[in-house]
Amino acid sequence: MKLVTFMAKACHYAQSHIDDADAWPTDRHEREDYLQCVSMQMACFFAQNTPLGDEGVEWEIVLEELAAHPMKSVKKWEQILGGIARKLGGWKQ
Questions:
Q1: What is the pLDDT of residue 23?
Q2: 11-42 residue pLDDT tens
Q3: CB neighbours of 79 closer than 8 A, spacing ≥ 6?
Q4: What angle do CA 28, 17, 64 make, to 5 degrees?
Q5: Averaged confidence pLDDT in the chain
Q6: Domain spans of the chain?
Q7: Read out DSSP for 4-65?
Q8: DSSP secondary structure code for residue 73 in this structure
Q9: Is the peptide bond before 70 cis (omega within 30 degrees of 0)?
Q10: 74 and 12 in contact (C-beta within 8 Å)?
Q11: Coil, helix or strand for 72?
Q12: What is the mean pLDDT of residues 70-82?
């Protein structure tokens, strides 16, 4: 499995866990609180696996996208994460 696919699945699964409006808060700020760890995880993967990431990646790099409704598919997450990686010099080989 490619790293970007693993990362995309992690984001998708985190969103799916809190996407039920009847079970979880719909307040964006509260949703962000629940998703901080996932965003930090993505920042660490970008820091370790992109040429410009070693200069530092903000921990909230995907937090806004994670907290937004509706939940995104794995394919959509691959597109989002791929775009971020391109801004950080692409994926290391």
A1: 67
A2: 999 999 887 777 666 777 888 888 999 999 99
A3: none
A4: 35
A5: 92
A6: 3-87
A7: HHHHHHHHHHHHHHT--TTTS---HHHHHHHHHHHHHHHHHHHHHHSTTGGG---TTTTHHH
A8: P
A9: yes
A10: yes
A11: coil
A12: 96
Phi, psi angles (nearest 5°) of residue 57: -130, 130
Q: What is the pLDDT of residue 27?
A: 73
Q: Dig out the tokens for 52 from the structure.
A: 């410009």
Per the listing, tokens 């039920």 go with: 20
**Per-residue pLDDT at 86:** 98
Residues 6+ apart with CB under 8 A from 16: 71
Structure tokens at 64: 């806004």
The alpha carbon dihedral of 16, 22, 26, 32 has a sign of negative
Q: Rounded to whole angstroms, how far apart are CA atoms 66 and 44?
A: 16
